[in-house]
Amino acid sequence: MSIVLEKAVLDMIKSSKNGVLQSEIWKAVGIDSRKCSRIVVALEKRGLIKREWEKIKGTRTYRVSYIGNPLDYDSLMAGGRLAPCIGCNEECKPIECLSMDQWVLALTEDEFRTNNL
Ligand code: SF4
Fold first, then answer.
1. Hey, whose CA ends up nearest to atom 2 of ligand 1?
2. Which tens digit of pLDDT belongs to each residue from 73-106?
3. Any residues with CB less than 8 A from the CB of 115 and at least 6 apart, and which?
4. Single pTM value for the model
5. Start and end residues for every CATH 1.10.10.10 domain found in the chain
6. Is 92 in the pocket of ligand 1 (CB under 6 A)?
7. CATH number belonging to domain 3-66
8. What is the model's pLDDT at position 99?
9. DSSP of 21-68
């Protein structure tokens, strides 16, 4: 299974606050419904998403929502760097911390890139 496709599917699910219909995912990502279903099932088995049946215009489909993963370290990364507080043994003054400033700036840049702002 393509990691690029899996990431595209997961990113779409993550970006939707109220979940997204599985039938919308495969159309948006540009894959067929069977491949989308395999990716979604794999993500569900990894505990990243949940699926719930929903009826839309008489047709049953899944609403897919991101539920996160306690082992997902993405939220600790910005600009390819781990959050500076991890393993830091400096006397902590966050307002004066250059490492934190740089990390937050990288986080902001990542958000702009991710959301095409
Ligand atoms: S804010 Fe700066 S000084 Fe404080 S723990 Fe994080 S990296 Fe260390």
1. 97
2. 677 888 888 899 988 899 999 999 999 999 999 9
3. none
4. 0.55
5. 3-66
6. yes
7. 1.10.10.10
8. 94
9. EHHHHHHHHT--HHHHHHHHHHHHHTTSEEEEEEEETTEEEEEEEE--
21 lines ligand 1 (CB under 6 A): no
Nearest residue by C-alpha to atom 3 in ligand 1: 92
User: Exposed, middle or buried by CB within 10 Å (0-12, 13-18, 19+), for 66?
Assistant: buried
> Which DSSP string do the residues of 73-110 spell out, in sequence order?
-GGGEETTEE-TTTT--SPP-GGG-HHHHHHHHHHHHH
Q: Which atom of ligand 1 is nearest to the CA of 84?
A: 7
pLDDT band, very low/low/confident/very high, at 3 (cuts 50, 70, 90): confident
